[in-house]
Amino acid sequence: MPPKTHVQVETFYAHHHGWLHGWLRRQLGNSCEAADLAHDVFVRLLCRPTVIEPREPRAYLSAIARGLLMDHWRRRELERAWLEVLARTPEELAPSPESRMLVLEALIKIDQMLDALKPRVRQAFLWAQLDGMRCPQIAERLGVSLATAERYVAAGLRQCYAHRFGDA
């Protein structure tokens, strides 16, 4: 990172970190999680090749933080759902703590991949993969042509392929 960018982020941090932490604490109701997310906002700024100098720095920071909050809440929801599945799993079939973490990480990656898809593409892809629906059924349910349903499913498959083989 160029030294000028480092100084810009350091100045930005000095002027706005306290406010951002407070804003995040009000959103989350937890000071520790707020501190982690505030840190992540500034890490994002540090990773950029140049720092934008916005006219409204707090609006800029809160926009970045909102995206991180959405990721945080989505991850929390996935963790909750996974813990519910584990709670219903007989003890003798329960995965090890290491396996539990690996599955959770995989679920988070899948969620991120699916989130990158447009809603109708995501829905068509999930119907095809999870419900075994064929493209004519998907087309009918979505009210689109067969070719469009096929394109939607193919787009989902391409997204999976790109994530699996690093083309994303």
Automatic annotation (TrEMBL):
Pfam families: Sigma70_r2, Sigma70_r4_2. One of its GO terms (molecular function) is sigma factor activity. It comes from the Bacteria. Keywords: Sigma factor, Transcription, Transcription regulation. Residues 109-160 form the RNA polymerase sigma factor 70 region 4 type domain. Residues 12-77 form the RNA polymerase sigma-70 region domain. SUPFAM superfamilies: Sigma2 domain of RNA polymerase sigma factors, Sigma3 and sigma4 domains of RNA polymerase sigma factors. GO terms for biological process: DNA-templated transcription initiation. PANTHER family: RNA POLYMERASE ECF-TYPE SIGMA FACTO, RNA POLYMERASE SIGMA FACTOR FECI-RELATED. NCBIfam families: sigma70-ECF. Belongs to the sigma-70 factor family. ECF subfamily. This is Putative RNA polymerase sigma factor FecI. The gene is fecI_14.
